[in-house]
Design a protein that fits this description.
Radius of gyration: 18 Å
Strand content: under 5%
Shape: globular
Structural class: mainly alpha
Number of helices: 7
Helix content: 55-70%
Distance between the termini: 36 Å
């Protein structure tokens, strides 16, 4: 899997998601279009499937991947980098409402004490690039396929919006069985 994923593209997508805010990826206004981070979404979906997680929706899957990645990064001894990534994406709490991206960025810079914005930007760029590579490795190591028999069926809950008809039709076409509420 690592050869199939581009760490630079993932870094760009992580930066886009940080700038928009994880809870606002689907925001559509006059000035903003929804963000569809294809590499990050695929990585989060693969991670959820490999770990058999019941996370519903793409934003939930992305949050789960990032949270687990941050925890694992800290566990492996890179707590400073993990703290910076946590502060940039989630703030003080990794559960509950997430503050606005500008607030998170300001607090992270204050917390890490970088004197200038350019120095902090350089540090943030380096950490995001290494975190992207780390996430690819994390998902790769989680992706050992379990042995399955014909009697085992995997249930995956997906959420689609009728306004996004192509996506919704694609989900219906892929489904073995569906329940529409």
């Amino acid at each position: 899997m690592p050869g199939l994923l581009d760490a630079d593209a993932l870094t760009d997508e992580l930066n886009d998601c940080r700038q928009r805010g994880l809870d606002w990826l689907d925001r559509s206004t006059t000035n903003q279009r929804p963000i569809r981070p294809a590499v990050l979404e695929q990585l989060a979906e693969d991670y959820g499937a490999a770990r058999r997680l019941g996370t519903i929706g793409r934003i939930g899957q992305i949050k789960t991947l990032l949270r687990d990645g941050i925890v694992e990064l800290a566990r492996q001894g890179h707590s400073s980098d993990a703290d910076l990534v946590r502060d940039l994406f989630f703030g003080d709490s990794m559960d509950g409402p997430i503050p606005a991206p500008g607030v998170l960025l300001r607090r992270a810079q204050e917390r890490f004490g970088d004197a200038t914005q350019s120095r902090f930007r350089e540090r943030r760029t380096t950490v995001m690039r290494s975190f992207a590579r780390f996430l690819i490795g994390l998902v790769s190591s989680s992706a050992s396929p379990p042995a399955r028999t014909e009697d085992q069926r995997q249930q995956v809950a997906r959420v689609g919006y009728v306004a996004d008809s192509e996506h919704f039709i694609g989900l219906l076409a892929e489904a073995v069985s569906i329940t529409i509420v």
